[in-house]
Amino acid sequence: MWFSKVIVAEKPGVAKAFAAYLAEGRYSLLTVSGVRVYVFKQDGGLLASVGVQGHLIDFDFPPQYNSWHRIDPLELFNLKPIKVFREGMLKYVKVLQQLARSTTTVILALDADVEGEAIAHEVVEVMKKANPKLVFHRAWFTAVTKRDLVNALQQLRTLNTNLANKVFARMILDLTIGAAFTRTLTLMVEKGDGGLPRGRFLSYGPCQTPVLYLVVKRAIERETFQKKKYYQIVSTIKYDNCTFRVKSEKKFEKKEEAAAYADIIRKLHSATIIEADYTERLVEPPEPLATVEMERRASRFLNIRSKRAMDLAEDLYQEGLISYPRTDTTIYPPTLNLRSIAAMFKDHEEIGAHVRDMILSAPKLRVRQGREDDGAHPPIYPLKCASSETIVKRFGIDGWKLYDLIVRHFLATLSPPMKLEMQKIEAEVAGLKLVANGLKIIDPGYTLLYPFEKPHEEILPHVTKGAKAEILDVKAVELETKPPPYISEAELLKLMKRYGIGTDATMQEHIHTNLIRRYFEITKRQCIPTPLGRALIKALEKVAPEAISPEVRGRMEASLKTIAEGLRDPDDVVEEVKREFMGYLKRIKEAEEQVVPILLEATMVVYGQREKNHS
Length: 615
Prior knowledge:
Topoisomerase I, domain 2; 6-stranded antiparallel beta barrel; 18 helices
């Protein structure tokens, strides 16, 4: 069968969408080597559309260097990794090569990001081996809608080799550094009879381990926090038939002093209002939604893990329900018809009235914009209005929760701010200042659509400065300073973004890897390190703190960015970073006597008796 063009997408769902939107009539389905190929007619020609499943190619060491016990891990830094096909990808390779021999033109419709650009280069490499005369074009789109796909095919571009080289350089570095450190640490523990079961190893990753460091660091701060008792005077006072609580601005170190003050106040019957402040404050809606912020809010508001959130977002994108979910942009482009998108929800059963009243009734949209623009994709926004029944049936309740969050977030960015009254009352009695802070919602604004950010009201009465308030009750209350909480997944993602640990496409993966390696757990949205995770950080921090430093990983990411910008040769960057981490590994090996006891104790706790008893 001969095809005028072959379209290669990154995912089967996108390949199907091309066929469904472009077909003149029905498309037909072929199954080649277990892979679905969609065949359809357009402009008198026969086209084929096929989706791969991510990267086809990976990097590995030559087979002779894959023996952990015969090869010094330091030797890996001097090797040039070879390309290999990823496990399970051979069937896609066969299909691509068969299609390559059945056409002259290939449209590379991979995802519109650096990873998609790298996969596009992999597709070119695979298909050119079967047909060196092929002509390739790049289709760039950010939403799986008919309009976006048709526009992409009308505005074809060339591949960006710099973007792909950045990805390949990162893959080589992650392989080399991760393998060298992982082998070294594992062999050290094995030598010390650390109780590692067969198939288990001590994993290290240049992104994974700095993430673990942030989790362990916060846990140590929490657990070494020195609690300190203090005392405050708490009183209930009455003004104009309204009662409210005030507490002393002063914190007493001694219980006796606080109790003495409480006794003095108790004998008095009134306090004088010395300050009454009621200040209106506008709270702006959230900025347009980028990837990491979507993952953070899914974790914080919906209790959906970041990896799960990204997987669901990918599914919603392939179904044409939301725009491309991998983006750093928080600015809506002028070409996006925001009013038209909002109008899709004007008859929404739950929020339709708010959409009509707050957004569509305004002669001019009030748009909240951010500051970031990755130059490739718009922020995440909804493409269709879908019912909860439809989405739950297709993607489950979590799929609906995430879709609903994205819809509400988008509509919130077009809504008026929330108006609050920040209240503060200060009273004085016996020379002691007593304070109450309150909050009143004057106008909920965007929180009518986005209840996740609606604050809890604590309304104080309006009082007059100089007036008297009746004292109803007085207590000296014992309190203590509170330690910081364990770091949440939402906060962890924010720190990863700040330090440049990973990309919007991989951050959730680095968290997930730590979970499956048993380095930390997420319980009630808090990241709690295990004894093994603590031991790994403790051992490495003792002898090579740079190897776990978020700042070092951020510097590495900055170097990789220069490749994408065409400022540096990828080989030079790779060799520079390799030399740096080789130095760290040498220090670890030289300090083996300090490192091993720390790791041995933890591996015996985690793997020792429990897994041996099950073997």
